[in-house]
Amino acid sequence: MDIKKADITIIAFLKRSFLPIARFSIFLIYFWFGIIKIFNVSPASPLAKALVHKTVGDALFDPLFISLAFLECIIGILFLIPRATRVVIPLLFLHLLVVCAPLVILPSITWQQPFVPTLEGQYIIKNIVVIAIAIGIAASTVPLRHKKLSR
Fold first, then answer.
1. Do 50 and 106 contact (CB within 8 A), yes or no?
2. Closest C-alpha among 60, 3, 69, 97 to residue 11
3. Which residues contact 142 (CB under 8 A, 6 or more apart)?
């Protein structure tokens, strides 16, 4: 096999594989991170507690944290269902607004100095990859068909 045929074969395989792998990857991340929150073993708990303390108050931490955990599990499951793409993408971006908020609201926890994130900051910034994959999944969605209006 020459290099051009190999290139075409590899690219064709990657095109076929992208969507299932992307969907499973987001499922795995969201479902796994949600489950460990539900079982109260998430290393993100202290960061979440600090965010809730700074924004809405400590009394709301437990219900908000468990709601976030279930939302993450639901987002993960919905990414496995291609027909749910139009529903899950907005949920994902809503979720990301919340989980990325500490970068702005809690800079003492998420930044060592300008442009140097702490481990918690790095944990949040990696969501850029999730956004890129979600955009790729959304871009592959078949547009809604426009019906012609009959007069």
1. yes
2. 3
3. none
The pLDDT-based confidence of 144 (bands split at 50, 70, 90) is: confident
The token pair at 135 is 């955009």
**pLDDT mean over 100-122:** 97
Q: How far is CA 88 from CA 27, 52, 64, 65, 76, in A?
A: 11, 24, 20, 20, 9
Distant-in-sequence, close-in-space partners of 69: CB < 8 Å, separation ≥ 6: 34, 35, 37, 38, 42
Instruction: Note the pLDDT of residue 147.
Output: 56
Give the integer Cα–Cα distance in Å for 48 and 144.
38
Closest by Cα among 17, 25, 12, 47 to 122: 47
Rounded Cα–Cα distance for residues 106 and 55 (Å): 10
